[in-house]
Amino acid sequence: MTGNIAARRYARALFAIGQKQGLAELDAFGSELSAVAKAVEESPALARLFRNPLFSIEEKRAVLAKLLQAAGAGQTVSNFCNLLADKGRLADLPDINAFYSLLLDAEKGIIRGELVTAIKLAKAKRDAVKEQLEKQAGQKIELNFSVDKDILGGVVLKVGDRVLDASLRAQLGILKDNIKRGE
Description:
Peroxidase, domain 1; 4-stranded mixed beta sheet
């Protein structure tokens, strides 16, 4: 996600509307917005169309209407996307969706992260690690597990803007630096 200030404002506005209507609506708005944003992200031609000033707002709205119908978007999200079309912000949909997802996670008390290991962990081990991290954080954690053989062993945990590198590769790097310094 970029530092798009306008996208953050639009996401906050839609989120505020959803908050007034309850958590179920927040989730529904998130799902609908995500479906529309995913279509824009997956179709470079669609993203170019929404960015291109040569296409009129009416032409963009016509394409958007079909997209909203295919995504099964409700009235509020449809109105929101039409507002984005009027303001020339349809190309910002992926950023708006990303920030909306962050707001929704914060509302639900969910932390998202990634755990990188040198080998694929068994389901039982992944569940145990996730449970332990949730216990330590005191919050629900959604973890993506990935494998990177370059770390040699150990784990690298990325949560938000924090990284805990407990990999063998990092430890060997520290040892190498200490040897160079004569420690």
